[in-house]
Amino acid sequence: MMDQQLVARIKRRSKYWGQTAPHQWFDVRVIEDAGYCLRGSNNYRLDDVILGVRLASGFIVNLANGQTNRRRKLDRQG
């Protein structure tokens, strides 16, 4: 089984910018909510975040552009 975690980081243009360190990834989960369907350290709309997947190796794949974050740093909140 693959160990993966959905993660997000807040977009600079979002009203939530500043709730985390700039460009910091944090764990999220999807819930059934018409508006704020992401839960992490707070409640977020899909439009306010960039989504990624943290792999078992610790690398993060940015789902918006397919790039891999090679720095392996992630705040494991959420």
Annotation keywords:
78 residues; mainly beta; 5-stranded antiparallel sheet; 3-stranded antiparallel sheet; 32% strand; disordered C terminus
Q: Can you describe what's shown?
A:
The protein has about 80 residues and is mainly beta. It is built from no helices and eight strands. The chain has a five-stranded antiparallel beta sheet, with no helix packed on it. Strands 3-4-5 form a three-stranded antiparallel beta sheet, with no helix packed on it. It is globular and about 30 Å long. The C terminus is likely disordered.
Elements, N to C (H/E): EEEEEEEE
Categorize the overall geometry: globular
Low-confidence sequence ranges? 72-78
- Note the quaternary state here: single chain
Mean pLDDT, rounded to whole units?
86
Structural class: mainly beta
Short description:
The protein is mostly beta strands and 78 residues long. The chain is built from no helices and eight strands.
List the helices and strands and how they pair.
Blueprint (H helix, E strand, L loop, with lengths): L4 E6 L15 E2 L1 E2 L7 E2 L3 E2 L4 E6 L5 E3 L5 E2 L9
Antiparallel strand pairs: 1-2, 1-6, 3-4, 4-5, 6-7, 7-8
